[in-house]
Amino acid sequence: MELGLVVKQAAAVATAAAKADAFPARTLGFRDSPRIGPRRVRFQPPASSAWRNRAVRAACNGSGRPEAVVDETAKAATKNEAKRARLYVGLPLDTVSAGNVVTHGKAIAAGMRALALLGVEGVDLPISWGVVSNNGGDWSSYLAVAAMARDAGLRLRVSLYLHGHGRPQLPLPQSVERAVAADPDILFTDRSGSRHRECLSFSVDELPVLEGKTPLEAFEDFFQSFRVAFADFMSSTITDITVGLGPNGELRYPSFRSSGGKSSTGVGEFQCYDKYMIADLKRHAEEAGSPLWGLAGPHDAPAYDRSPDSGTFFKDHGGSWETPYGQFFLSWYSGNLLSHADRVLSVASKVFGDFPLSARVPLVHWWHNTRSRPSQLTAGYFNVEGRDGYETVAEIFAKHSCAMIVPGIDLSDAEQLQGARSSPESLLTQIIRACEKQGVRVSGENSSIVGVGSVGFGKIKEKVTGERSGLDSFTYNRMGAEFFSPEHWPLFTQFVRSMVLPEMDPDDVATGEETLSLPMKSVPENDRQMQAV
User: Fold this and answer.
1) Which residues have C-beta within 8 Å of that of residue 52, sequence separation ≥ 6?
2) Residue of 67, 269, 445, 482 marked active site
3) pLDDT in tens, 484-511
4) pTM reported for the whole predicted model
């Protein structure tokens, strides 16, 4: 007997429409049923163990008409809709590939239909500056995905990413690559001279390093092009635009490295060694009357994966971070981060006017339970004991009426490595309080679907729906292989049910005799696998 995740596509919409008023809330899920035979379309694990390595397959055996099995509830809990946070699901980062092709479009469309049935508000579409730029400003593939969301009845949050990505491979614009070849110092550089090749240094925001243009001018061109291309969606489908502010779309320096998909819990390293950053540091040191402070970053700071005590700079007691030099350097370093956010959000506000904007900040929670909080310092957040570094960030967001997106809603202190003195919960609370103080809306995201079980979903629901939640919306990342796996999809279904229908009466739960079978078109052969990211 098989467990199948059955997908619903465009042809099913007309069939379901007649039932819509009678069944306003639908839940798509798994069914253990001998009636699910060889003439159905389903997501199922193939015989090969390669499915474990991030592959989702829609299997269609035979030429018969596929069907979707949908639980129907008798009534919706509309009285709770005003209170609940909006729920989104992130689409794969390579929804549109580097070659400007929609990746596994039919599978993504089927997934959107399933999400709409569940009652999800919308999806988050990642858009790459490099993909659009390297294909002559052609938006057709991204527009096609936006149309899929609209046709499924979903809203759309758009993330405009200004960085490159190694896995999946999403490049920076070719104009940036040519500029890097001519002058590698436009990239972030660490103490050993290693370059971070996925993001331009904040120090060149206003320098004409891109074939006569400044990065800010290039960002503005990209934003303007998007606004024109998506004009028909801006007034209806799109709810807000997320602006990328740094590596991985987050407002931070690339201070820590990822290994095997997991971030290091070391202190990270300061990214201030490109010639433009050093020149700016030197100028500020001279203005402060201490020119020797401008020669380089802290010489006694540990390396990426080391603990705070492996050097003297971050030591809780007697560390250099508390000296006049340390305070000067950290103020300058974090100030550059804040100035970058202010500049980019100013450009976005100029282009998009009053349209809702949002931006991401990282949840750098390891070593939070120390006085110096070193991993936050290297990321650019001057957030130490006695100094709230997130209030100044919230002030910048408030200035531009920009919502703040914070990841790690699924994390708890109890699950963290004890040696890293981590506290994601207290850091999240600090960020939300800083935003409340400045009147900034807050949205949440999970860190990863890997390892998110029923307990994890319970934590997310508690943080999203709690009386002191402070969250305006929540985005679950991200659609892909694990998302549609038999281990994950039923849990996600239950989670959405509990969010959309928190007070459902037992009499409203569908029984086996109250399910609705919906016909749909077959999934083409080349779209039966969707790679996760």
Assistant:
1) none
2) 445
3) 999 999 999 999 998 876 554 444 444 4
4) 0.82
